[in-house]
């Protein structure tokens, strides 16, 4: 049954036996090695993609540069109309694409659909934005002068994305970049290449139907080496990179070295503070979904629970009993709560983390382990685990991309919990569970959480596209999606116009010839 469902989805998404990347319409010049994509759900081969060579990359860049020259001249609301049509196509393809996301990446079907919904939402947002790329006007200190600022299209945007959000992150970037008049070259994760081909196929239809230059949307496939071509390329003014802190550190330095801009969305180490005034039912649901959703492979996954000592045992018992109810298995079967990890390498890292937490002095509360047997043939299914630990442990300081939750105890006031929450290198998402107004407001104040996302009475994971998304410190500092995140996709220009007679210099400086 699963096989038929997937076959139908692949057909709807125009996925062939061997797929190619490159710019839309130019589907005939991928000359690299073949990349095979296996599903973590059942371990089966889904399809093959021809990767890009450096020569292919050059052709893509030519096509992108050519497209930019034309695309920037199209009025922004007209570019918005293109994005509106893309959103419509996504609505039609939501089921098929959602299924492919679930099957190739391993997240639950609901989350697969959710990712496509996020793409649709950001398209809607971008359509409105296409009439609101506002600059400011300001009063000049000189008589007969007018001053204003405006935003111009930037150029080619390079997008490097991670496996865990194989389609939404691309759309967060492209939908905004396109209304801003930029063209995009996408290097998706080598672990989810078919999701990328599917997105590119959908966008290709829009480009064709509107007779637009094909280089607006380009796809290059391969591993980090093809990513390096992007980061080193002076023709690319903005690199938007989502992935590990390890990757971001390299990318940031390379791009800064050539004075490019980078938008970095890197790893998290997200915590929920549970105070004596917390609603325990809400806490347990928020924490369990946050820790085991997407099998702990969200950048916003809850990795640490910082619990007040007075309620520690109560929370601990409730968590252990909630974990007993978790069903692990095929994520396309909606009865299951937890699907597989992306691959066996991720399973290894999970095993290592569990060993390390014990070696560093922690205590396992809910046993982990890899699952074998019927339904677990891919070797990627693991049991969500809970360990009692200390924030200072090296493994707790580190982001393990798997369902391992650390329980940390605090005593005294909420300030102590906030200090623990902030005492990690990453700064993506954070939350507090409390009905105490003072605690909640302190947590959100300048002396509170140091993360890019701080929530009250909801967990750390899951975000809406309307807000700016991203984090501080080793999370990279970038902001994507809603609010004014669009500004990074444009270049700002300040204009002064003299409509008077004679030359007046600023600061009253006199200069006579
Ligand atoms: P990864 O860093 O291994 O790979 C991400 C992408 O970077 C891939 O496309 C990869 O090919 C590319 N890449 C790797 N090294 C590169 C280099 N030197 N130059 C250019 N490109 C390079 O990450 P992953 O395992 O795919 O994803 C998981 C990580 O992503 C986690 O750390 C997670 O927290 C993070 N993430 C962050 C966000 C966010 O918004 N902050 C969102 C999703 C994922």
What would you note in describing this structure?
- Its EC number is 1.2.1.3.
- Residues 33-494 form the Aldehyde dehydrogenase domain.
- Keywords: NAD, Oxidoreductase.
- Homotetramer.
- InterPro entries: Ald_DH/histidinol_DH, Ald_DH_C, Ald_DH_CS_GLU, Ald_DH_N, Aldehyde_DH_dom, ALDH7A1-like.
- The chain is an alpha/beta fold and 513 residues long.
- It is 38% helix and 20% strand.
- The chain has 14 helices and 23 strands.
- The chain has helices at residues 2-12, 54-71, 76-105, 109-129, 168-179, 193-209, 224-231, 245-257, 280-292, 312-324, 344-359, 394-397, 414-422, 437-444, and strands at residues 18-20, 22-23, 34-38, 45-50, 137-138, 145-153, 156-160, 183-187, 217-219, 238-242, 261-265, 270-274, 302-308, 363-366, 385-388, 404-410, 426-427, 429-433, 453-456, 468-469, 472-473, 480-481, 490-498.
- It has a 7-stranded mixed sheet, sandwiched between helices. A 6-stranded mixed sheet has the order 2-9-8-7-10-11, with helices on both faces. The chain has a 3-stranded mixed sheet with strand order 1-4-3, covered by helices on one side.
- Strand 5 (137-138) and strand 6 form a beta hairpin.
- Helix 1 (2-12) runs antiparallel to helix 3 (76-105) and helix 4 runs parallel beside helix 5.
- The longest helix has 30 residues, at 76-105.
- The termini are far apart.
- The mean pLDDT is 96.
- Bound molecules: nicotinamide-adenine-dinucleotide.
- The site of nicotinamide-adenine-dinucleotide has 30 residues, from helix 7 and helix 8.
């Amino acid at each position: 049954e699963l096989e038929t469902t997937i076959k139908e989805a692949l057909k709807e998404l125009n996925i062939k036996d061997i797929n190619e990347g490159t710019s839309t319409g130019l589907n005939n010049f991928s000359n690299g090695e073949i990349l095979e994509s296996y599903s973590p759900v059942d371990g089966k081969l889904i399809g093959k993609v021809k990767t890009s060579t450096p020569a292919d990359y050059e052709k893509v860049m030519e096509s992108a540069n050519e497209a930019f020259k034309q695309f920037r001249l199209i009025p922004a609301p007209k570019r918005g109309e293109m994005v509106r049509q893309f959103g419509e196509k996504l609505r039609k393809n939501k089921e098929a694409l959602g299924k492919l996301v679930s099957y190739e990446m391993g997240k639950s079907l609901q989350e697969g659909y959710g990712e496509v919904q996020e793409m649709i939402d950001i398209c809607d947002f971008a359509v409105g934005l296409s009439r609101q790329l506002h600059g400011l006007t300001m009063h000049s200190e000189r008589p007969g002068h007018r001053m204003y600022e405006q935003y111009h299209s930037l150029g080619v945007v390079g997008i490097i994305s991670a496996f865990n959000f194989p389609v939404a992150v691309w759309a967060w970037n492209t939908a905004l970049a396109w209304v801003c008049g930029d063209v995009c070259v996408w290097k998706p994760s080598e672990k989810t290449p078919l999701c990328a081909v599917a997105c590119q196929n959908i966008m290709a239809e829009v480009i064709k139907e509107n007779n637009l230059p094909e280089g607006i949307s380009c796809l290059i496939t391969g591993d980090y080496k093809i990513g390096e071509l992007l980061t080193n390329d002076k023709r690319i003014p903005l690199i938007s990179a989502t992935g590990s802190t390890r990757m971001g550190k390299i990318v940031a330095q390379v791009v800064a070295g050539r004075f490019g801009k980078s938008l970095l969305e890197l790893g998290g180490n997200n915590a929920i503070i549970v105070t004596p005034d917390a609603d325990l039912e809400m806490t347990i649901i928020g924490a369990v979904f946050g820790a085991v959703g997407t099998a702990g492979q969200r950048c916003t996954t809850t990795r640490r629970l910082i619990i007040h000592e007075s309620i520690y045992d109560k929370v601990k018992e409730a968590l252990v009993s909630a974990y007993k109810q978790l069903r692990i298995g095929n994520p396309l079967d909606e009865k299951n709560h937890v699907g597989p990890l992306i691959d066996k390498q991720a399973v290894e890292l999970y095993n290592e983390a569990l060993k390390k937490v014990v070696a560093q002095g922690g205590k396992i509360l809910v046993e982990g382990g890899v699952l074998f047997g019927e339904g677990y043939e891919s070797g990627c299914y693991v049991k969500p685990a809970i360990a009692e630990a200390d924030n200072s442990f090296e493994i707790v300081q580190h982001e393990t991309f798997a369902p391992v939750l650390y329980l940390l105890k605090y005593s005294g006031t909420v300030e102590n919990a906030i200090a623990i929450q902030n005492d990690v290198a990453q700064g993506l998402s954070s939350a507090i569970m409390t009905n105490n107004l003072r605690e909640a407001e302190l947590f959100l104040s300048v002396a509170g959480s140091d993360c890019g996302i701080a929530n009250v009475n909801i967990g750390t994971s899951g975000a809406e596209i309307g807000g700016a998304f991203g984090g501080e410190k080793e999370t990279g500092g970038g902001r994507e999606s809603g609010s004014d995140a669009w500004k990074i996709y444009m270049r700002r220009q300040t204009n002064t116009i003299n409509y008077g007679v004679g030359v007046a210099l600023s600061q009253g400086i006199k200069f006579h010839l």
